Amino acid sequence: MNPLDLRIGIGHDTHRFVDGNGVRLGGVDIPYTRSLHGHSDADALLHAITDALLGAASLGDIGELFPDTDAVNRNRDSAEMLTIVTDSVRCQGWEIVNVDCIVFAQAPKLSPYKQDIKKRIASILKIDANQVGIKAKTGENVGHIGRGEAIACEAAVLVYRRG
Fold first, then answer.
1. Which one, 11, 15, 121, 144, has least CB within 10 Å?
2. pLDDT truncated to tens, each residue of the chain (163 aa)?
């Protein structure tokens, strides 16, 4: 395999908390006393994965494809956006090797939901769940994450060009 047939993409997203009744991460609804603020459904994890895929395939970024100035993206399901991007990446001749994700959140605690998140992401990407890594980290009471003001997510994706 030619080394140029492999590419890595990195994605990041942060959303702040507002009054609400739950958080959506990785396409999974998690009960919580607050919600994340965003133009779409504010799923920071799916947004980070979307940007990682776009970066790996050199297709721009999530804000270019799904601008918050477009009313059609208001409250839009981030799984739908990730599906569109995944299809575009595959149309360009790329396949996903794996995705590795980190969720930075003081709360809610994500351990009970990590397997569901992993399965949901795999389903959206049409890959096996063992190709998805999910890690959760707290902010150790430091900064906007540690104070419980926001959730941040990072994702790295490896893709290869189909022969």
1. 144
2. 676 799 999 999 999 999 999 999 999 999 999 999 998 999 999 999 999 999 999 999 999 989 888 888 688 899 999 999 999 999 999 999 999 999 999 999 999 999 999 999 999 999 999 999 999 999 999 999 999 999 999 999 999 998 7
Residue with tokens 């096996």, as numbered in its chain: 128
Is 49 strand, coil or helix? helix
Closest CA to 50 of 93, 85, 74, 15: 85
* Residue linked to tokens 């991007």: 85
Q: Rounded to two decimals, what is the model's pTM? A: 0.96
Instruction: Report residue 64 as tokens.
Output: 């270019």
